[in-house]
What we know:
Helices cover 42% and strands 34% of the residues. It is of the alpha+beta class.
Amino acid sequence: MIQRRLMAFGAILALAACARPAPLQEGSGEFVGRGTLSQRTAEIRRAGAGLGWVMQEQGPGLMRGTLNVRSHQAVVDIPYDTRRFSIRYVTSTNLDYNGGTIHRNYNNWVRNLQNAIVVQSGAQS
C-alpha cells in the first residue's frame, strides 16, 4: 500500500516537472563549409523535415518552420545567409507561452532543429 502511494506521488511529481515552464530560448548557428543561399535553403528544409517540421520559404534568406506535436504547435522563423542562421519564436499553441517562458519541450525542439541544420550543412561539404 505504501509502495503504491509512493509510486503515485512520484508520478505526480514527474508530471508537474514536465509542465514547468522554462525561459524561452532562441537558436543560432553557423553553417559548416561553403554554400550558396539556395543550398542553405535546402539544408534547412531537409533538417526540419527530418524532425517533423513543415518548412515554408518566406523569401530569400527566410524560412518559416511549423511543428505539430499532439495538441501542441510551435512556429519559428529562420533567417539565414550563406554563413549563419537564427531560430526565432513566432507563435505557439498549447505551449503556455507568456512573453518570457514557454513549455520546456519547445527549447528542446529548437535545439534539435539547430543541431540538425548544422549537421545537414556539414553533410553537403
